[in-house]
Amino acid sequence: MRTVEEHQKVVAGLLKSRAPQDLLLTDTLGLVLAADVVAPLSLPGFDNSAMDGYAVLADDVAGATEDAPVRLPVAEDIPAGRTDLLILKPGTAHRIMTGAPLPAGATAVVPVEATDGATDTVTIRAAARENQHIRRAGEDVTAGTTVLHAGQVISPAALGLAAALGLATLPVLPPQRVMVMSTGTELVAPGAELQPGQIYESNAVMLAAAVRDAGAQATVAPMSADDVDAFRAALAEHAGDADLIITTGGVSAGAYEVVKDSLSDQVEFVKVAMQPGMPQGAGTVNGVPIITLPGNPVSALVSFEVFVRSPLRAAMGRSEPDRPRRTAQLTEDLTSPRGKRQFRRGVLTGDTVSSYGPPASHHLRWLASANCLLEIAEDVTELSAGSTVPVWDLS
């Protein structure tokens, strides 16, 4: 059997990054910058007021107090957005709003709270120091400065900065486009009526969500019955512009293994020394990478975590694509099959971890409430309470 590490390398070798693209700001959240961003202008772009108040010469109000206020005629009213260039004459004040351009000659802004708020002659009851409540041009960003760096994940704050700099697009590594497809004649869409021997399809919904959680785009193809021609037709019709195809089911050793029967000349089907998730496949179909996962729900999702999630994120430029790994102290005795690496559902609490539910691959209920996977090595058959065990943090 192939080792976990060997199959991880095979899968990672199939996934490639898409060419960088300039995308609209609204389409880039969570993506990775493909190039540095240099500020085309300074922020602020002009001297402006940091407060609602009055632009003055600091010397004109140097002696202002509550008991001895200074009164100045209000020569102009400057709301934010006023575009004409104004000059403040000594001995006058301009009423000014937050963000409005500072008139030439002004050396301070007196907050409206320190005045009577008048619009003709203002009474100022507090002195102002030089540069008080003034935002100077270039104080935040100087034109020509690198403000965002290649490899950086685009956050809401980064988008705000890009927009403030007047940028309509950003150069990014586009998200991977993943098509998910479930196979099995027994599958029925949730909400439909079940016939004897049928089950509701859950893998495609689950894996598409896992793809999106990893930061990629997911589309779900219609379920395919265990018919080679129908499967091939569905694959050809829906693969489209996919960068990766993920199938579930049809890869085991029994009869009616539609994925294996359809793709045996393009996909390498192997057994991986792990539990759950032993039957796996990887290859390309018409040049598109395809990963074929087992059909049992737990096997499918654990396989995605172990083999697909990290290279998928790496292909989108993520510098830390892996789930956080740590060690924790086991709270109970456990056994594991020799020769297989076991990934057990677990609940991580602080520095301790407990296994959660049976290890079998159909117990989806337990995985839905687990927050980690316990990784038990191939050569370990018994673990006692208090042992240290590697943990994949899924939270």
From TrEMBL:
Segments forming domain MoaB/Mog: 179-314
Record keyword Lipoprotein present: no
UniProt keyword Metal-binding, yes or no: yes
EC class of the enzyme, as a word: transferase
Annotated spans, Disordered: 316-351
A Gene Ontology BP annotation from the UniProt entry: Mo-molybdopterin cofactor biosynthetic process
Protein's pathway: Cofactor biosynthesis; molybdopterin biosynthesis
Catalytic activity: adenylyl-molybdopterin + molybdate = Mo-molybdopterin + AMP + H(+)
EC number, as in UniProt: 2.10.1.1
Cofactor: Mg(2+)
Classification via SMART domains: MoCF_biosynth
Molecular function GO terms recorded: metal ion binding; molybdopterin molybdotransferase activity
Family: Belongs to the MoeA family.
Protein name: Molybdopterin molybdenumtransferase
